[in-house]
Amino acid sequence: MTTAGDIMHRGAQWIPAHETLDRAAQLMRELNVGALPISDENERLCGILTDRDIVVGCVALGHDPARVTAGEMAHGTPRWIDANADVSEVLHEMQEHQIRRLPVIENKRLVGMISEADLAQHLPEDQIGTWAESVYARTPDRH
User: Fold this and answer.
1) Kind of pairing between the strands at 9-10 and 109-115
2) 26 φψ region: left (φ > 0), alpha (ψ -120 to 50), beta (else)
3) Which of 66, 114, 112 is nearest to 88 (CA)?
4) pLDDT tens-digit profile of 90-133?
5) pLDDT per residue as tens digits for the range 49-98
6) Of 84, 89, 112, 140, which sits with the fewest C-beta atoms within 10 Å of its C-beta?
7) What is the pLDDT of residues 56-70, one digit of tens each?
């Protein structure tokens, strides 16, 4: 059985909810990633922040990324997967919620992230094709 822990990218880092978006962008650059899980004061997942969120939800609206926090950008219920979950559960979670990045949690702590690249690297082509078709077929409304 292939698990989420087997295919995830290790070394994911939180951005605390109180950190500003300019700091989040700097961390994304340092880590060469396009998304960061947002943690509350107890290091619990409270959202995901993407580079697109920073641009569209802050900069394009004329807001100062040095004054807007990651926590202010956290919307909805964050999705995650347990490190021991079967890869079929990973695919289902990403398909069901049309998400392209999924934090991996073990013992209530962030241990990694699964992205499209991780799926492409570890799964057979037919599984990737089915997943991509379902995730990209219906694009959720973005504001």
Assistant:
1) antiparallel
2) alpha
3) 114
4) 999 998 888 889 999 998 889 999 998 888 888 888 777 877 77
5) 999 999 999 999 999 999 999 999 988 788 999 999 999 999 999 988 88
6) 140
7) 999 999 999 999 999
Strands (E), 1-143: 9-10, 15-16, 35-39, 45-50, 81-82, 101-106, 109-115
Alpha-carbon torsion angle 80, 86, 87, 92, nearest 10? -60
Q: What pairs with residue 74 in β-bridges?
A: none
Helix (H, G, I), strand (E, B) or coil at 39: strand
Place of tokens 């880092």: 13
Quote the tokens at residue 70.
């990651």
3-state helix, strand, coil in the chain (%, to 5): 40, 25, 35
